[in-house]
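Changelog note: in this version the structure field was regenerated for every chain. One regenerated record is shown below for reference.
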Amino acid sequence: MKATDTENIGKNGLQVTRLGVGGTAIGNMYSASNVEETSFLIDGAIKQGIRYFDTAPLYGYGLSETRFGQGLEGQERDSFVISSKVGYVLIPQSKGEISQTPFVDIPPLTTTFDFSRDATLRSIDASLSRLKIDRLDMVFIHDPDESKSIEPGWLPGDVGFYNEVMAGAYPTLVKLREEGVIKAIGLGMNQWQMLTDFARDGDFDCFLLAGRYTLLEQESLKELLPLCKERGIRIVVGGPYNSGILATGAVNGAMYNYAPATESIIKHVLQIELVCKRYNVSLRAAALQFPFGHPSVASVIPGARSIKELNDNIELMEYEIPSEFWSELKAEKLLDPEVPIL
């Protein structure tokens, strides 16, 4: 497949390239990025026809958006598509407060959730200022599945900020879409369960699903993805490597969903790697291309922090993978038997 092929999202003529650039890495996730290299990355992406960029206030606490703004400055506005997010509000750190964040060398800020109308509008204005542009193409509501309990992450049965979103951010974004201020609206999160509820109850164009439709995880196929197909909701896949192991392979210290990979996950990846070896297929190429078997998937957005990483991703997207490879993964029970394949 071609990395530069485009897919439609929504009903307002928005098109994204199948390969996009996720903005976590240039927001200094885990390690500092080189500012000059970031500009080369963005310029190189546009010159090679990769024209979809995703960012968020959370990524580097404004740093990712600021760097995209620097890199996109001078580009024709219609030459690229950019999405950002609302929900996380950046606020000054309290004296002596230490942020628990995977981002390094970032401004002295922390975050709180606010899905109200006013916070949504303020967040969009702040993003436009950091990005140095006059409009966002697509806006995602960010992580409303995060639990309000003391336990980290999403808990089964937890409604998170669902009601706040449907009363505040959602109708606000619908109005902006109706007015032509933005072309598409959606949600972005690391879980699929609550997205299913949003798909039933709202009128969304796109979901950013991070790490939940990959070579290792296909539970979303049972409920969410059929509903998205029925309702015309497109999927942007984030985290196609499940935060590491599908890029590194089953090496010592491999990471899976931001934690050390368990023995069962390592065993599963080793079995996939054996099939890759038989068909001379790169594990990373398989991970990047896998989601496109499903017709609802529009784009995949691995993070990149350099032009080399971008070029690698383009090459991996265009690596020819025989259909027999996918069939064997299913025959070996390494993929859900219902997975649609390329």
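Spot check on this record: The first strand starts at residue 6 and ends at 9. Confidence is low (pLDDT under 50) at residues 149-153.
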